[in-house]
Each structure stands twice: as structure tokens, then as C-alpha cells.
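Quick note —
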Amino acid sequence: MENNMLEYTPRIPTHWKFSKQRKLETPLSDPAPAVLAPKNECKGFDSWLKKQCENTKEIQSLWSVLAASERGADPRAAISSGEVPFGFSDSFVWPKVVKTLQGVTNKMNSGSQRKQELKNRMEELRAELNKCEEEYALITESVQVWEEMKAPCEQATKLAQSCQELEEEFSSVVEQALEEPEDLSADHLILVFNAVGLSRDIIQKITAKRVTGEEFLDPCYSAVYDGITNEERMDVGYCRHMMEVRKIPYLKHDDCVICRCDTEELIYLFEEHEEWKLSPDIAKKKCINGPRFFMMSINELEETFSISRAQARTVWKEKKQIHYAALSPGI
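Predicted structure written out below.
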């Protein structure tokens, strides 16, 4: 029987035999992110992420799943093999990691938004700066000119202040004297002419004659009209008329629709009174204003506006009625 039995020689499994002791590869307890971080990630991602996190322990598990992903393992296989940690429901590992990464994302998105806001603000400031620089250049030029004009301007101001004081003084004296215009002296009459707006040329011509108020108001005294134009004659005549009716300053008669007109306003008045048949172009050409129009005689109306004598008489009567209606009850 012993011959029929297979000879049994005790063997040790070959995988139990070691020519030398095999080293056990134990995972690092804290693998260096530089080693485990995936090669296909942005260079420096690990160090950047650590800087963004206040507590790096919360993302410690991230490095293992990144390393597994680099080798082609999906998260399920990595967790199942023990390479990537997981926890029970009372101590989940990954919510903290997700929350931390989402916080970093929100933080950086906020930074991007803030970057755009700052960019927009810088553009606004640049535009404002450009505007300020333009204004500064203008102001600088203006200040330089002002430095040259300051002294003349101060001198002009002093002269204007002096004229202001004289104006107040003369107007008080003349307005009081106008209560009895016949008693006006030649000097006071010149001030009246000046105040009602007669030209300097007229004033100088009358000044040479030393005309008094009594002479000026005398209908027979015509020397005052010597050497002046027809328009100037009407201006002087209007002044004498208004002095007679005690309406100097002229603003006392500002309610007269004729006398308050300049040339343009008089043209509107002509348009309102179409029945007068007076040409606006002639009024404009000859610089006829309200006071001059009032002073025009029948002959002047007829010749100036080329209308019939009957029409000129009608216009003359109506304009006088308008004027004197505004004077009463002042007369």
C-alpha cells in the first residue's frame, strides 16, 4: 500500500517563501499635496487653494480624490477601495469640503465682480480727471489773464462806484428840480437830457447854447433844434412834451402802448392797427420808435409812409388819443 500511495512531500506555498523580507507600503498619513495633486490641474492650484482657505484641514480629503482622479479612478471606486475617505451620517467628510470650495468660488466671484466695479469706477474717475484737467487748463489760463487784468478791473470798479454815488446825488437833485421844470438851470437841463437818453452829440450842441428850462419849454424858442437831424428833433421834442406834462422820468408814462415801444414793438402795434396802413419796413428803415411816432406831424406821416393826407390825419388823431388817454388822470 505504501507503494501504491503517492509520495507526499510537505510543501510551503511559494508565495510564503521570501528570499528577503518584503516592505509593506503604508499610505502617508498626510500626503504632500504637491505629490498627490493631479498633474492636469493648473500649476500651483494646491498652494493657491490653501491660501484661500482659513482652515486647510477642512479640505485635507480633497487631495486624495484629486490624486485618484489623476490616475483615472472615479470617486466611487476610490471610496470603495479606501483611498478616499468617507464618513457616516453623523460625521460626513465631504460637506465641509464642498462648503469650503463653494465659499472659495463665491469669494473669488465676488472678487471678479468687485474688479469690474473698480474698473468702471476707474473709468469714471479718469473721465472726471480729464474733465478736471481741461477745466484746470482753462482756469489756469483765466487766472493768468486775471493777474494782468486785476488792477484795471479794480480801477474800473472804483470808477463805477464813483459814478453810482454821483448818479444817486444828481438824480435826487434833478428829480426835485423837475417839479418846476421852468426853473431848471442849464446844468440841470443837461442832466435831464442825459437821463432820458438823448445822444451825446445833441447834449453837446444844446450845452453850447446854455439853454435853461424856461427857454427849452418856450414854444417860440427854436434854437435848441438847430443843427440836429429830424430823428434827433423828434427826440428833443418828445423830451420837452414829457417835461411839460410832468412825466419825466419816462417810466411814469410806461402804460402808454405807443410811447413804451421800441421799433420792433411799434411794428407789432402797426400790425394790430391794420387800418392805419403803415409800412413796418419804413419804420425799421428809419428807426422809428414809439416816442418818435407820437411826435410825427400829419405831414410827416403822409410823406414818410406814403399815405393819403386823410389817412395821415386819421392816424395822427388816433395816436394822440391813445397817448393822452394814458396821460390822464396825470395831467
